[in-house]
Amino acid sequence: MKTTVGACPLDCPDACSWLVTVDDDGTAVKLRGNPAHPVTRGALCVKVNRYLEQTAAPDRILHPMRRVGRKGEGRFERIGWDEALDEIAGRLGDIMHEYDGQAIWPFHGTGSLGYVQGMEGFAGRRFFNVLGASVHEPTICSPAGSAGLKYTLGTSGGMDPEDFARSKLILLWGTNPLTSGHHFWKSVQDARLDGAYVVAIDPVRTRTAQQADEHLAPMPGTDAALALGLLHVIVRMGAHDQAYIDAHTLGWEEFRARIEEFPPDLVAKITGLPEERIVALGERIARTRPTAIRATQGLQRHAGGGMALRTLACLPGVTGDWALPGGGLCYSTSGHFKLNLPKLVRIDLLPHPVRSLTMTRLGEGLLEVDDPPVKALFVIAANPVGSNPAQNKVRRGLSREDLFTVVLEHFPTDTTDYADIVLPATMQTEHLDVIAGYGHLYLVWNEPAAAPPGECLSTSETFRRLARRMGLTEPSLYASDEELVRDLLDSPHPWLEGVTVERLREEGFVRLNVDRPFLPFAEGFPTTSGKLEFYSRRATRLGHDPLPGFTPHADSGEGLVLISAAPHHFLNTTFGNNPELRRRAGGPVIVLHPDDAAARGIADGAAVRVHNARGAFEATAEVSDRVRPGVAATTKGRWAKFTGGTTVNATIDERDSDMGHGAVFHDNRVEVDLA
Ligand SMILES: Nc1nc2c(c(=O)[nH]1)N[C@H]1C(S)=C(S)[C@@H](COP(=O)(O)OP(=O)(O)OC[C@H]3O[C@@H](n4cnc5c(=O)[nH]c(N)nc54)[C@H](O)[C@@H]3O)O[C@H]1N2
Ligand SMILES: Nc1nc2c(c(=O)[nH]1)N[C@H]1C(S)=C(S)[C@@H](COP(=O)(O)OP(=O)(O)OC[C@H]3O[C@@H](n4cnc5c(=O)[nH]c(N)nc54)[C@H](O)[C@@H]3O)O[C@H]1N2
Ligand code: SF4
Ligand SMILES: [Mo]
C-alpha cells in the first residue's frame, strides 16, 4: 500500500487536498480528505466522496470513438488512437487550408481547474496558438463580478476566507457555502464562537440562510440598490470612517451624492424588503467592526452583476473595514495567485492576432458568426449542452453537418452525443496537475496515483500527440507536464517566492507567501490611483457609469424570476450520471411561493412545465415559502438525457451581463403551468 497526495480538480472554491491509497497492484482503493490541509481538514464533500467510484464507473469512456449515427444520437464505434489522430489532423489541415486557423474553436470548460489539464491553463492552448485558432473567452462563471471588483479595488482578490474567523458581523451575500464550498463554514463557526452575528442575503432560504442569525430575501438583481441603501443609513448616522476615506479612497464626494439617491424607503421598493429591516441592518453594520462580506458568483449572474460587486466592494471602503483583520469582502481569491500564465499559455505563439469567441454565446458562435465560420470545435472538460445558456440553440449549432466536433471526456454526456470524434481523458487520480483554490490561499499538488484505465490519455499528452501527428516543430509543444508547472511557477512575485515543484510535491500544498491575517490592501489598492476608486475613470472610458450604482434586471416583464443555483449533489453537470447521487437528488424540482402557486392553481407535488420563449423543461412543484414571492428556484446540473431531453438551461438567455461578458443564469423570467 502507498499513499499519494492529490487535489480536487472541480470548479469549487475549496480546492481540497486529498490522499489516495493505492494497493500493491496499483489500484486506487481509498480517497479521503487530507487532514493536514488547514482548509480541507480531512473532509471532502458528498460528491467527491464518490470520486473513486466515478473513476471505475461502467459508463466511463475508455477508448477513442467515431460517430456512426446522426449528430445528437450518441451512437459511436470504437477506433484506435492512430485512426482518431489521423482523422483529426486531416480535418484540421483541410479547415486551415480552406479558411484560417480561426475557424477552430478550442472550447474549454470548468470540468478541471488544473493548470496542466484544465481550464486555468487552457490545456492544449499552446497547440491551438500555433495553429492560430480563435481565443476562447471563458465567460461561464465569474467574469462579471471580477470585472466589477477591478473597477473599485484594482483586483478581484479580496480577503482570505480563513480571516472571516476574526469578523464580528458576516454578511453571506448571494452565496450558499453549505452547498457550494462548505469548508468556508469553519471560519463562520469560529467567528460565531467569538460572538459574530451572521446575516444571509438571498432570495431563497437556502441551507446556508437557514443557519444564519438573520435572513433577508431581496428580489434578485437588486443587491447594488440594497448596498446603497445600507450605506445611506450608515452615512446618515455619521458612521462612515472619514479618516480612512480621506487617506485611501478616490471620489468620495461624488459617491456620497449617489448614496443620497438611495434612501431606505426607495430601496425597500426596489428590493421588496421591509424598510425597517434595511435600516436595522444598516445600523448593525454602522456599529460593528470588523464586518466581512462573503459574496460569490451567484450574485453576479445578472444583467447588473458586474455593477453589483463593484458597489458591494465600496461598503468596506466607507466603513474602513478594509484596514481591519476580519473586515472587507471576499469574492474569489484567484486574483492573488500571481502565477506566470503568459509563460504557460504562450499567446506569443499565435502567428497573428486572432478573434475571441465567447463561451456563453456558443449557440450564436456556431450559428451566426462568420468570417470565418466555426468549422472545428474542440470541447475540453466542458458540457455545453448541459451547462451553457440557450440549450436548444446550442443543440442546433452542434447539429450542423459541416461542423467537425471533437470532445475530450470521461463520460457520455449530452455534449459527446454531438461529437464526430470522442477522445477518452484521464481523471484526476491518473494525471499530474496543480490547482489554486479560489476560496483559500494555497496551491495544491496533484500527483498521479494510479494508471489510467483503458486507453485514456491526459489532455496534455493528447495535444502533444496531435502536434506530432500534424508535424508541428515548435519545441514548447512537447514540454512535459512537470515543465509546464515550472513555467507556471516561474514568477518574480514575492507571494510566490519559494513556491516550487519540489516543495509542492513534498508538502502536498503550499500557502502563498502572505501574512496571516492577510490585509490585501495594506500597501494600497492596485488601481491606477493606488486608492479604492469610488469614482472610476477606467469605468468611464469603457462605457460604464463613473460611479457605482444599481443596474436593474434585463429580463423584466411577466412571469417569475427563476434562480437555478448550485445543486447539493452534483457539481455543475459533473456527477450528474452517478446513480447514487442521482437517487439522493431526486428529480428536478421547482420551488414556488404559496401565493405564486395558488395564482396558477398549482399544488405541492404537481407536475409542471416551466417555459418561456427560449425553451421549456419539466419539474415537480414544491410549494414553500423558502422562496420569496415573485421568485422561483431550481438547481443546475441535470443531464438532459435523464430528464426528458431538456433542462432549466433551455430557458436561459445567451445575453451578456453588464461587464466581462458574464452569463445571466439567474436573470431569467419563466412561466409555470400544470403539465
Ligand atoms: N454542490 C455544488 N457546489 C458547487 C457547484 C455545484 O454545482 N454544486 N458549483 C460550483 C461553481 S462552478 C460555482 S461558480 C460556485 C457557485 O456557488 P455560489 O456562488 O454559491 O453560486 P450560486 O449557487 O449560483 O448562487 C448562490 C446563491 O445566490 C443566490 N442568488 C441568486 N441571485 C441572487 C441575487 O440577485 N441576489 C442575491 N443576494 N442572491 C442571489 C442564489 O439563490 C443562491 O443561493 O459553486 C461551486 N460549488
Ligand atoms: N442554469 C445554470 N447553468 C449554469 C450555472 C448556473 O448557475 N445556472 N452556472 C454555470 C457555472 S458557474 C459553470 S462554472 C458552468 C460549468 O459548465 P462546464 O464548464 O460545462 O462544466 P460541467 O457541466 O461540470 O462539465 C464539465 C465536463 O468536463 C468533464 N471533465 C472533468 N475533468 C476533465 C478532464 O480533466 N478532462 C476532460 N477532457 N474532461 C473533464 C466532466 O466529465 C464534465 O462532463 O455551468 C454554468 N451553468
Ligand atoms: S468539490 Fe469542493 S468541497 Fe468537494 S472535494 Fe472538491 S474542492 Fe472539496
Ligand atoms: Mo462556476
Automatic annotation (TrEMBL):
4Fe-4S Mo/W bis-MGD-type domain sequence ranges: 1-59
Pfam families in UniProt: Molybdop_Fe4S4, Molybdopterin, Molydop_binding
CDD domains (alphabetical): MopB_3, MopB_CT_3
NADP recorded as keyword: no
Cofactor(s) recorded in Swiss-Prot or TrEMBL: Mo-bis(molybdopterin guanine dinucleotide)
Family, per entry: Belongs to the prokaryotic molybdopterin-containing oxidoreductase family.
PANTHER family: OXIDOREDUCTASE YYAE-RELATED, TRIMETHYLAMINE-N-OXIDE REDUCTASE
Annotated protein name in UniProt: Molybdopterin oxidoreductase
Organism: Actinoallomurus iriomotensis
Lineage of source species: Bacteria, Bacillati, Actinomycetota, Actinomycetes, Streptosporangiales
